[in-house]
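Structure tokens please, single chain.
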Amino acid sequence: MRLNFYTNLIFLVAPLLVSSCVSLQSGEAINSQGNYGADAQALGSREDEAFQNAAGGDSLKRGRFDSKTTLDQAIEAAINTGSRVVEDARRLITQRKQWPAAHRTLEAAIQDGIIKYDNVRLANAVALYQSSPLAASVTLFERLVGSGRPVARQMGWQIAAAMPSRTLTFAIDQELGRAITENDDATVLIPQMAVAVQANGMKSAYTLVRQGLMTTGQEAFALSMAQLDASRASSDFLDYLALASAEELRQLTQNSVNVYTCLIALKHLQAHPAPLSHAHAEHLVYYAVSRNNGLADLGQMALESYLPKERSQVAIMMSRMPQWVQIAYVESVRRKKAPAITLLLGELKKISSSTDVVEEVDEVLR
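Here you go.
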């Protein structure tokens, strides 16, 4: 069940990662090299005019394909219009069993579109290409991720995530190796890369994915880590959670960490507890007393995962923390009547050096 939880989250997040990078204004183009914008807009305008003047252009734009609609017309309509027309084109290609030809046509269109298409057309072309039952082209992946256009790089990783294969796994490994060798990590530390690595089961890329988490805090990196190596991820999640200080966690908002990523990490730690000997294990207590209710609830549940077998160790860890933290924790569980919590408070009462903490525990247990 927990495997399905992470897998479903990853594939729910993946399409959003691409769509968030694509402008919804069809006239806008990325200008990462200073040349794309004007060229793409001019070419896009000419494409619009030619498309409108084509035979049956209006009906094709609305996806009203019929027996006279050619493969090239269907693909052009899908790229220029997107939305439901992409799905209509996919159905038409499938019904006619024309995927081999469509696959080649789309691959060529996307490669040309790296410069020629604006963001929306490029996204539409990739969306239709990903519907193909054939294996993704390694050459296409390399052209996209090797381009100087950020959106094109993101699309390349998206294709690798949606169409995993052994050949793409090798190409991904080559690209990641290149980035490390050339000290070009920034170009690959994007959420789409994390999703692609996970989809292709590349456990060897775990260290780079971890670097992405610590650098960007994006949820996709945490989800990928949890799937690639659950045990290792637990300890690394504690390192990430520790980026937020105790003082920051007592505020309503957190700036040092991504709250959604923290929720993923804390959820993971419930099922895969990190060793209490970890240098940042006590940070779970800080999260348990956070003013952010979501973080506090999951922090408390992560702590409770230790109680059946390591209750004494948790109590010792708490007793070494500042008095205000101990009192805040006792207050936070005041309404909890679970036996495990009651036993933990009893252990804390025995070893805490603070009289105020002992009195607080007595009042709760009374």
